[in-house]
Amino acid sequence: MTNVINQKELTLRIEYKLHPELSETEFTDILNRSSLAERRPVDDKACIEGMLKNADIIVSAYDNDKLIGVARSVTDFHYCCYLSDLAVDEAYQKHGVGKKLIDMTQAQLNEKCKIILLSAPSAREYYPKVGFTQHPSAWTLARDIKLIK
Fold it and tell me: pTM score, two decimals?
């Protein structure tokens, strides 16, 4: 699917792909260009490869041959979909790329399935603008933290 985006003097021909074959290098590069790398293990090649290999849905956005955005999700397709990574090159933000990546992710899901995500601090204002509802009781547990007895 290709979208042409015109804004002032900027004209982009963006191609979106479902389940692209992304390399660890490409994925790490887009994480770095989106600022998401601050919260991702970009220096751990095995972890990045596992993140790509075990994702259920990956949607990408390309401007010519340049990867400019990616949405990576883990899901059961019926009840919940965790949108783990939504990374758009900072130079391409505010042109609808992230919104299109979310739309394409959502299109892969059963009609009752909800997208769940943890927002990057800099993106907290973005998600309500595109239709997300904030949930007041999200919790995380790191692998190296033991449950309290």
Answer: 0.88
Q: What is the pLDDT of residues 6-39, one digit of tens each?
A: 544 455 689 999 998 999 999 999 999 998 989 9
CA–CA gap between residue 101 and residue 15 (Å, rounded):
11
Q: Please give the Cα distance from 114 to 2 (Å, whole number).
A: 26
* Number of structural domains the chain divides into: 1
Q: State the Cα–Cα distance between residues 55 and 147, nearest whole angstrom.
A: 27
d(CA 96, CA 68): 12
**Residue at 117 is within a domain:** yes
Q: Is residue 140 part of a domain?
A: no
Q: Cα–Cα distance between 92 and 16 in angstroms, integer?
A: 14
| Structural domain boundaries enclosing 116 | 2-129
* Contact (Cβ atoms closer than 8 angstroms) between residue 107 and residue 81: no
**CATH code (residue 25):** 3.40.630.30
State the helix-helix crossing angle for 45-53 and 24-34, rounded to 10 degrees: 100
